[in-house]
Amino acid sequence: MTEDIRKVKNDNALNILNQQLNSISAENQYVTFQIGSETYGIDIMLVQEIVRYQEPTKVYNANPMIKGLTNFRGQVIPIIDMHKKFSLPEQEYDKFTVVIVFEVKNKTMGMIVDRVSDIMSFREEEIQLIDKDFEEDIKTEHIEGIAKSNAQIVLLLNANRVLSFEELDKIDKYNKIEN
User: Fold this and answer.
1) pLDDT tens digits, 142-152
2) What SMART domains does the database record attribute to this sequence (predicted)?
3) pTM of the entire predicted model
């Protein structure tokens, strides 16, 4: 299969996922994606779009987890390198690498993920919220819960805590400078 045909098939998959995003409104639905070897999910209601990764404009002296800035629908937004955010080894971007554009606390940003998996629904009993006892054993400040579906475990991101207040403040300053 030629590279052009693979690119078209991958673009078609992104288009289908984006169409599903626009037509979904149910609770407990998550866009699931891979970062390293783990599967994560983010509340579908926060996701604006999933776009193919393109190298963002670098911002020198920025927080190392900020890969750069990009133009999204006429708005300059920061792009977060989730490998750096989670202290994972750097990984080469490939044809499956995408940016999930989402909004949190009235700020739009993107996060680079290795690949989007699916849109999944979980019943209440399939979601285990992170409690204080669990936090002592595992660093969970970015996780709001763990969803179980058959043999698969999905770590549910708390989008409000993907970035700290300090990091959100810095992003707000980038947006003011660039916009």
Assistant:
1) 788 889 877 78
2) CheW (SM00260)
3) 0.76
